[in-house]
């Protein structure tokens, strides 16, 4: 008998992923990352449905709010003395809200509350007594009611 030549079996090596599949997978990952980034940039701010400000001072005040991380103030509006006013669809300022109170040209100063405090009080903010004191000492005239 004559010897039979056989081919040796190929050695098994690591699986090779075709280049086209790698390119498609990489392009897909880049597209998903881009879409997530675009969504985050375009979705806009969160809102709080209602924020109620209670003004126990004798002054007609204007209220502004800001976040510690932002440079600008968002004007909420006026609140009459011994009254409360609810503001709707207020831009969420994040974990800490800063309130600025004025009565005309007179500055009543700022006070801040955490988001947890605001939620605990059902988004009802009472202007601190000290704000009324500052307005009075700076020359603001109380609103006289008949």
Which term fits the overall shape?
Answer: rod-shaped
Helix segment tally: 3
CATH T-level fold name of the domain at 47-137: Immunoglobulin-like
Low-pLDDT regions: none
Q: How far from one another are the termini?
A: 128 Å
How are the strands ordered across the major sheet? 3-2-5-6
- Total number of β-strand segments? 7
Structural class: alpha+beta
Q: What integer is the average pLDDT?
A: 89
Main sheet record: 4 strands, antiparallel
Supply the CATH class of the domain at 47-137.
Mainly Beta
Fraction in beta strands: 25-35%
Topology order in helix (H) and strand (E) letters: HEEEEEEHEH
* Residue share in helix: 25-40%
- Shape-level CATH architecture of the domain at 47-137: Sandwich
What value does the Rg take, in angstroms?
32 Å
Detail the topology: elements first, then pairings:
Elements: H1 19-42, E1 47-55, E2 61-66, E3 74-79, E4 83-91, E5 96-103, E6 106-114, H2 115-120, E7 124-126, H3 129-137
Parallel strand pairs: 1-7
Antiparallel strand pairs: 1-4, 2-3, 2-5, 5-6
How would you characterize the overall build of this protein?
The chain is α+β, with helices and mostly antiparallel strands and 146 residues long. It has a domain at 47-137: Immunoglobulin-like (Sandwich). Helices cover 27% and strands 34% of the residues. The strands form 2 sheets. The protein has a 4-stranded antiparallel beta sheet with strand order 3-2-5-6. A 3-stranded mixed beta sheet has the order 4-1-7, with no helix packed on it. The termini are far apart. The relative contact order is 0.17.
